[in-house]
Amino acid sequence: MGRKVLILTEVKDGKLRQVSLEALSVAQQIADGEEIIAALFGDDSTEILSEISLYGAHKLYTSTEASLSVYTTDAYTQALVQLIQEVGAEVVLMGHTGVGKDLAPRASARLGAGLVTDCTGVESVDGNVIFTRPIYAGKAFQKKSFKKGILFATLRANNFAVKESPVRTEIVSFQPTIKDLRTIVKEVVRKAVGGVDLSEAKVVVSGGRGVKGAEGFQTLQALADVLGGAVGASRGACDAEYCDYSMQIGQTGKVVTPDLYIACGISGAIQHVAGMSNSKVIVAINKDPEAPIFQLADYGIVGDLFEVVPLLTEECKKVLSEAAVSS
């Protein structure tokens, strides 16, 4: 028996976030023939609306309410709760992003509903939806389900296959009643970082104290550029001011789950491992053969990263170039 699912989709840099596409694909499994509803606040570009219809959303609720043009906890909570009540959603999914981590607890608490965060797996068994999430810094996993009520869940990016299922999507204008706002955003100043979003990157090249300085990250960036990936860092590298804290991966930084994680000059401290241990393939490059990162890595290279990484970069360029010519 399926359930009516609502997905809060997010747009970044004019494009639907990858984790929103993954959430739409998970919704197809949970809905099992029931209605799938997408919500998009603050953006109604034709390109975005067309893309959502490719992933099985039967209805798309959009709102151009001025207070929803920029995310604030108050306005989005009020709008999402009103929409859930209006459409009668039984399951609410969103990405485990900054917005999802802030909004899901607030909205679920307001509705007296249960919430599972940072999910890496979802399955339907005998009509029950079972969510899997990592615990103890990724060393164990727990499964959670709900006996009754609305189910809220946030999904970790890069853990669910994106499945196209084109349908005819009905666009519905949604105008919630927003009042008593305690926060008003007057101006948004974005930090110009460019490149691939670290939290959703398929390839991450990460550096630790072994990078030795800010210039060392340029070596890693060259490899990341060739592979279409993003550059991350350990807390040690950030604390040493080799790079910005926005690149930090770990228990107190970002959690990533790329297809390929290349750890360069990273020892493998538990704080860092908590943020990348669920990567599908891990490659470690370190001069110290006893570094703990090698116990976690699928492939290990004992050597100086300043010799190994440029060689890898050139070899990857060569292989990708040959592949492009043959295709």
Automatic annotation (TrEMBL):
Domain Electron transfer flavoprotein alpha/beta-subunit N-terminal: 5-193
Statement: the UniProt record of this protein carries the keyword Nuclease: no
Residues annotated as transmembrane: none
Classification via InterPro entries: DHS-like_NAD/FAD-binding_dom (IPR029035), ETF_a/b_N (IPR014730), ETF_a/FixB (IPR001308), ETF_alpha_N (IPR033947), ETF_asu_C (IPR014731), ETF_asu_C_CS (IPR018206), Rossmann-like_a/b/a_fold (IPR014729)
Keywords per UniProt: Electron transport, FAD, Flavoprotein, Transport
Keyword Flavoprotein: yes
Family: Belongs to the ETF alpha-subunit/FixB family.
Protein name per Swiss-Prot or TrEMBL: Electron transfer flavoprotein subunit alpha/FixB family protein
Organism: Brevibacillus brevis
Lineage: Bacteria, Bacillati, Bacillota, Bacilli, Bacillales
